Amino acid sequence: MFILKQTTVEFDGINASPFCAKVELFLRYHQIPFKIEAALPMHGPYKKIPFAVYQGETLGDSELILQRLINDYAIDEGLTSLQQSQGYAWQMALEQHLYWLMVYCRWHPEASWKILEQAFFSGLKWPARPFIAKQSRKLVLKNLYSQGVGRFSLKQVLQAAEQCFVALEAHLSKNTFICGDTFSRFDLFAYAIVKNIDNHDMPTPLASIIEGFSQLKLYQARVEQALKNKAGSVHSLTSLSA
Ligand SMILES: N[C@@H](CCC(=O)N[C@@H](CS)C(=O)NCC(=O)O)C(=O)O
């Protein structure tokens, strides 16, 4: 049995970590039996979530996990090399750039942090809770600074995110999915991050910006339909086994 180790925090029906959601949705879409176990980044091989226990091995990194499953289950998404390169370029923009802008908007502004703190740390006991929450926030802000985005003002971060939404909106107004007409693994992170941003449970300053991008709403609906068609309901993401 494939064991997916991830946070079990969800916002509006999607895993709070778009990397975790990507793996979980891949497993569901390809109907690979799996079980979810709650885990913290510190327990993973790369000190990040998601990670997985599979065939006696511990695998880390969402992309490496997907590559392993694609190999083992001989999954062919039918993408041309041009589609693959398109998918890769979008993957890098969303995972390596937009993701960090989202992290900034969750952990930096006080109003967002208050909601996030409640969602991530409310299960902890006093007096440890405020200490662990504060330390975690300090670490994330340090990581944001190292990554580069943490050196920006909120206004600059919002401008950068808007630029990304404009590009994605233009792409998705002409393409059904990230790689054109073919739904693929590249849609999983794209969907997960758009839904995490366009989210009522975890509103950040990005939520009011993404609101104006109608193609991104339509895209979410298309991906949900594709997932439902193949894997059944996407609304059972909390269930502990597939
Ligand atoms: N490249 C990794 C990125 C995973 C990632 O950044 N996970 C975040 C949660 S969304 C994490 O574990 N952060 C904890 C940390 O960096 O300390 C992947 O694809 O799995």
From TrEMBL:
PANTHER family on file: FAILED AXON CONNECTIONS-RELATED, METAXIN RELATED
Record-annotated Metaxin glutathione S-transferase domain positions: 161-223
Protein name, as recorded: Glutathione S-transferase N-terminal domain-containing protein
CDD domains per UniProt: GST_C_family
InterPro entries reported in the protein's UniProt record: FAX/IsoI-like, Glutathione-S-Trfase_C_sf, Glutathione_S-Trfase, Metaxin_GST, Mito_Protein_Transport_Metaxin, Thioredoxin-like_fold, Thioredoxin-like_sf
Thioredoxin-like fold domain mapped to chain residues: 18-109
